[in-house]
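Sequence in, structure out.
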Amino acid sequence: MKYVNQPKTEKGQETLDKIILEAERLFSEKGYYKTSIKDITKAAEVGIGTFYIYFEDKHSLYQAILSEYGHFIRKTIAESVRTAGTRIEAERMGIETFIRLVRKRPSMYNVIWQALYVDKKLFVDYYTKFSENYIKQILIAQKKGEIIADYDPEALSYMLMGITNFIGLRYAIFDDQTDLDPILDEVMDMLVNGIYPHNERME
């Protein structure tokens, strides 16, 4: 993981994991700026000196958490859509996987979106990386004829990311009990068939 001095022992890894876990919780509950290194080390039950073995400062710890989130989400979604037979199936499975991940780790939303005012470049880089990975899949689907080839892959990637993010916000943060199947069915119906009558569509 970038931004981290990797531990060389199992005990060191356990200590690092504890620091990251408590930082994630505190950043989510109190916010980045209201959380101090002292707060983190106290919660993790380690000395402040131990913190600096692994991280240069609080910002590098935050970067490490964002990096881990991005890698974890992309990897988990990629694994979940491997069995998809079509791009439509992959899209539905990807949205569902993301929502279920956030239901398990709701702090991800709080921590990720704080990047917009903690360090805008981190926020931009985070979503740019997602877009770049999405574009690769969109281009493959366009070549197969599963997505209309005329559509701009980057614009489409952000549109689909936006849908996933806000459906996730509604059904993982606002309410995490709703049955996802009918919601996902409707989302995919809107994506596949459109939301405007045919006679209202642009030429």
